[in-house]
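pls read this stuff:
=====
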Amino acid sequence: MSKTISFNELRQLKDSLPDGSMHRIADKLNITVQTVRNYFGGTNYEFGKNHGVHIEPGPDGGIVVLDDTTIYDMALEILAENK
């Protein structure tokens, strides 16, 4: 199921994650840490892949369509654990 959010919302989620979260998500999904970073707006495709994220320019940093919300959902779970 896809989800549409603003780029700023996606970056805010990334910035709210505790240290080590990118590695934790990558390890659980058996993907590279750079792929997780790319999901949150990174652009290093030499060491990571695009993981179903499409960014369109626009207000509030632009619109982001997440084709696969697995990483997004895991990030929300990590935040919930730390509250």
